[in-house]
Amino acid sequence: GYTSIYDNVEHVALVMGDIAGPNGDGHDVLVRVHSECLTGDVFGSRRCDCGPQLDAAMAMVAREGRGVVLYMRGHEGRGIGLMHKLQAYQLQDAGADTVDANLKLGLPADARDYGIGAQILVDLGVRSMRLLTNNPAKRVGLDGYGLHIIERVPLPVRANKDNIRYLMTKRDRMGHDLVGLEDYQEAANMDSYDEGVYLLGERRAPDRDLGGAL
């Protein structure tokens, strides 16, 4: 675990295998930097894809046998905090999307900072990584402190009728790489969708593609 000297927020690094690797240089490490989400990670909220992303990242690192899942606390609601996030949910229930809800509260659409996360990865011995994320902006936030991102690895996303609008907003307004949502939306409108289907790259895949660990 790590405690930030800047704000005293505690963060957790789940490490598997030898990060130094066969050459002892800390290169080519599979990494997930996961933002805290109480509602999704703990309570299983269907309004977001946070819990399934965490599950998928842990399964993929476990399958590889080497990697880091860094759990960043203080990132609740993309950095606006739990109480503001709950207020944003009320605005979303009234019709605002996830971006406009934050803005209506006078808050940024995304207030997260990844500098502490980058420093933790360096301390763990990571030098180059394959980053598990659908968010290209996260690459910019982590590509520093001597770290190099050699590949962005897409994370499978669990889509359902409660989070489809949220996912489409992340794609359309925040630049997330989420392919196939239109197909899911069309199927949902016809009540013929498969609940819990994963959207991975340009194909839809069931849980078994991740080793049955989800």
From TrEMBL:
Residues 2-154 form the GTP cyclohydrolase II domain. GO terms for biological process: riboflavin biosynthetic process. Its EC number is 3.5.4.25. It comes from the Bacteria. CDD domains: GTP_cyclohydro2 (cd00641). It catalyses: GTP + 4 H2O = 2,5-diamino-6-hydroxy-4-(5-phosphoribosylamino)-pyrimidine + formate + 2 phosphate + 3 H(+). One of its GO terms (cellular component) is cytosol. NCBIfam families: PRK00393.1, ribA. Catalyzes the conversion of GTP to 2,5-diamino-6-ribosylamino-4(3H)-pyrimidinone 5'-phosphate (DARP), formate and pyrophosphate. PANTHER family: 3,4-DIHYDROXY-2-BUTANONE 4-PHOSPHATE SYNTHASE, GTP CYCLOHYDROLASE II-RELATED. This is GTP cyclohydrolase II. It comes from Mycolicibacterium hassiacum (strain DSM 44199 / CIP 105218 / JCM 12690 / 3849).
